[in-house]
């Protein structure tokens, strides 16, 4: 007589779907800056920091829950900024774990910007005002402001 051993399959598959339900933390009352003083974008997973560098380039760094840089993998970003009639389209290349724009920001200190983040699914857009003035109410520039002062 031949005894056939069968492996028992676990119920692990049930647990993985629960982890995917982890909620987005879109709490408008609590704003946070990125670890380098940039704008924290939480509309995408993983979250990212958008930072304007001293040479007016834009640096995007994806962050894990502990705000440590994570590799962007296949995720791509684009940034369009400036007036709608004459927008500047910025493209990015990898620099370490970050993505850094090849172009520099247009002249000026305050213009509308749209960030597009694309990984596997649909692109996610983040529209904001890229204001490079110092915020009077907190230690960050306006685009990364974490306070609720009147604009
Ligand atoms: Zn502020």
Automatic annotation (TrEMBL):
Signal peptide, first to last residue: 1-22
Keyword vocabulary terms for this entry: Signal
KW Signal (keyword) present: yes
Protein name as it appears in the record: Uncharacterized protein
